[in-house]
Amino acid sequence: MRKALIALTALAITAGACQQNSKTEETNNDSTGASKVDKIEAPVPAFSADSAYAYTAMQVSFGPRIPNTPAQTKCADWLISSLKKWADTVYVQRTTVIGPKGEKLPCINIIGSFNPAAKQRVLLLAHWDTRPRADEDAFDKTKKLDGADDGASGVAVLLEAARHFHAQKPDAGVDILLVDVEDYGDPANDNSFCLGTQYWAKNPHVPGYTANYGILLDMVGGRGSQFYMEQASKQYAPGPMKMFWDAANKIGFSDIFRYEDYGAYITDDHIPVNTIAKIPTFDVLAWQANGHFPAHWHTTNDNMTVIDKRTLQAVGQTILQVIYTQPFSY
């Protein structure tokens, strides 16, 4: 994906172109002796940053998850087996997409569905592949990178969330979409990024699939990361995004989820979900107040040394807070 930062004025020119709250029931008698049913809200599960950190490290241990490499196959097998332990249903899309130079790239999208009978649904997604080269590196732009933050961190947060959805079933339907071949593209061609998501948006895992809204996680584990409201997200999914930010601030992460408006537009996986699948989706993605991405972005420094458990905790606990207490309160 080309994560290009474009000024707000440029966006104005181009915009036209693109719980179970886990409640239990108790029967009591009121003053007339008639029975009544009270809904008792269960506590929101505690997100484990230790688990999310370990899931990040596991992905990195396979090596760079580049299409057409053994690491791609090994990591896909692990992701599929992990979701099968927790999800009600797991779907695997195996296809071939065409890279920016006409190369054929194997693509493996993995979907875990929770509470499939629920009509009201939330889509959670992240990409699990790694950019094939550290093209922002100051020393060697041809080297491979671990992609600990850019890719693995978002997937890790969703895996830990999946573990909780299995242990404490949410009222809402939840679908976790792990997309492949997101970061293989050419910066000169925005459409050459997010190839796995483009395929899924045109060929959903369930014919006619839709969700009330989607949440994209990308680069959500870096030390010192902050999250600002991205402009395309504000255009397509302002209500769900503000609900998410408000929840994060309410539970103690106001230093990480910020309301300042820096006018940034990001080309990321939420764009095809919004424009092709027509599911309002917002992006949780780190960048700095100066408009730049974190210094480790697309460099060999994107390794486990940049991963911070508090950042993972902030994102993961907010996901659980929203899903279990207010998934549609926007």
From TrEMBL:
Keyword Ribosomal protein part of the UniProt annotation: no
Gene3D superfamilies linked to this entry: Zn peptidases (3.40.630.10)
UniProt GO molecular function: glutaminyl-peptide cyclotransferase activity; zinc ion binding
Keywords, ordered alphabetically: Acyltransferase, Signal, Transferase
Residue ranges of every copy of the Peptidase M28 domain listed in the record: 109-322
SUPFAM superfamilies reported for this sequence: Zn-dependent exopeptidases
Cited PROSITE patterns: PROKAR_LIPOPROTEIN (PS51257)
Pfam families: Peptidase_M28
Domain of life: Bacteria
Ranges in a coiled coil: none
Signal peptide feature range: 1-19
Name of protein: Peptidase M28-like protein
Species for this entry: Chitinophaga dinghuensis
